[in-house]
Amino acid sequence: MMTVPEPAGRGRMKLAARCRVATEAPAFGMVVFCVILLNAGLMGVETYSGLAEEYRQVLRAAEECCLVVFSLEMLLRMGAYADRPKAFFQDPWNLFDLAIVVSAFVPFVRENTTVLRLLRLARVLRTARFLPHLRILLIAVGRSLPGTASFLFVGALVLYVYAMVGWVCFADSDPQHYGSVGRAMLTLFLLTTLDGLTDAVRAGLQISRLSIIYYASYALLASFVLVNVLIGVVLNSLDEAREIEAEADRVPPPAAGPDADGTDVRERLATARRALDEIEASLAAADRHAAGPPDRQLESATRT
Q1: Model confidence at 112, in pLDDT bands (50, 70, 90)?
Q2: 268-280 in b/e burial notation, b at 16+ Cβ within 10 A?
Q3: pTM above 0.90, yes or no
């Protein structure tokens, strides 16, 4: 008796289903989250030269264990996408995690202590994957970058104009702060926080009473208007990030296989054909039963 060979995609579907069950379990996320915090703690301990020298072997073994856990986690996450590999690389968090884990096995990186420590420090950012609120904040920061760039351009323009005016008005009397456009821009940049504004106004009043207009207009424009514009950009990006996360939660997860129920299309077609054959056979049997045997048909015709 011949057995029907199992479709090539069925094995990948089963692997993806099992890995997906493992990665979506709350215990899995909690373990990975704790290992990330442990990795961060180990980096903090290594900053103490005495402890790092005394427990060198223990710290090295703990770091290797963390790397093993991260590698197994990445293999399971990749296995969860075995039935749809392209979807794995469409998720930015998957690419970020993969880059951090794989870089630890690159020979140049493993030999460079500084680069390796920076990459280990980047693992701490992976906690955002398990903390929805932190993930929303990071998304908001990313989406606010275009608006922030425009804000920085406008702020630099305002700073340059006021620095030139300050150089023209105060360069001779206060060369320490306004001797050049660079010094003037640095002085005004520090005054953006309003720290030291009182001393600057007092020094300006000794030069001219009109300096109050200069400092008041700059404080109003730079410290209030522009800063509030930046806050508005960040808040708008934060609302967009919340909408993105809410939309991602509402979207149902993709199907595990080529069909919604995980059944291959060819198998479904074969099942439909068998059902049609059975229906035709049953209809033919019903017609023969209704007509009866040939002798009964002849007797019925004679009586008629």
Answers
A1: confident
A2: eeeeeeeeeeeee
A3: no
